[in-house]
Amino acid sequence: MNALDIIAARRDGRVHTEEEIRFLVHAVTAGTIPDYQVAAWLMAAVLRPLGVDETAWLTRAMADSGERVDLTGLPKPWLDKHSTGGVGDKTTLVLLPLLASCGITMAKMSGRGLGITGGTVDKLESVPGFRINLTPEELKEQAGRIGVAITGQTPRLAPADGKLYALRDVTATVASIPLIVSSILSKKIAGGAETVVLDVKCGSGAFMTELASARQLADCLRETGRLCGLDVWTEITDMSQPLGEAVGNALEVREAIHTLRGGGPARFRELCLLLAGEALMAGGKASERESGYAMAREALDEGKAYRKAEEWFFAQSGIASLEEVDARLPVAPSLRVIVHEGASGWVAEVDASQVGEAVLDLGGGRREKGQAIDPSVGVECLVAVGDRIEPGQPVFRIHASGEPAADHAQGRLASALRVSESRVEARPLIL
Ligand code: URA
Fold first, then answer.
1. What is the pTM of this model?
2. Of 171, 260, 343, 375, which has the fewest CB atoms closer than 10 Å, so is most exposed?
């Protein structure tokens, strides 16, 4: 078996054998295949998508590229959540401590930003000293001690995903359902979860821009989960506008802290509660979504989730309080407020893709493999679809490294906002 034959097979649409997929994943993990050959296979796999069995084989091979965390001995349920990727999607930062404070063991594997979508690993790295490369033993020990732990892909946990993920990010090979499914589920299997709640994002700020393709992604996640022995739950949620106000790594951590404290943008808080309700039902802690929602709201309102988040951040960063975390987040040197220059009306669109691109341009994401990112930069979106808007009202706040970068982002954001003369309803969160 050799890499060239496997690339050619994919190019010609021939179904891979399980051995071929294992060979490829092993070579990626061991570093015995060059990036250009992996990138060629990835592009062929985007153009000739893997079938159901191939996707399950790839998922298992990627999960087995490292160790699997064995959570035996920890209180059940063992649950994980994941988003398929969105702009301003910081739900993990709220959901993890929220669900842990309701008695669920949350041992989570996350990734970095992909394309215009942010990644939890990058967000948490904006907190000085936050350790996001736990060993399997550390992940288990911490999840057992405080109920919540998170790690990125490491040489011991889902290393194949770590390598493929970094290449997909910079070769326009992210938006493929089988590649997304195997990437997400391999991390969930490696992290030891039994039940997984997946937020499938749909809209201009997601990899699936149409409801039909988001449904296909959700179906493929559940089917592959079934073939791999995972209990997978999916919700399709709106990603046509940024989630919450903040887009950018440190800004999003700050917004998550405000939400845990009881504030935060209403739409973001509501999505966290809806997903928490679903997770509490999936984990058997609530008999239906509504009682799960009420349980989660109480944990948030009574400060249980906030206190759990303080334990979590202390365990992985050594910073004792969320107030101190907030105070130590990096701040961009240049701040610019953009106001609405048109007539009064209703906000009809805040295009998540344009906002995501603006944040990438500001340096908040990567255009090349391994590129350093600037955690301090980003955009705050001060209006949402359905809001009434008046001339002169602030609509975006740009956090940039300097004036030229802010000018550039301002140009990009000029086409992100659309205002209608007639009333526009707020968009539903769950599609
Ligand atoms: N999240 C992941 O972990 N992988 C993907 O491919 C997309 C979103």
1. 0.95
2. 343
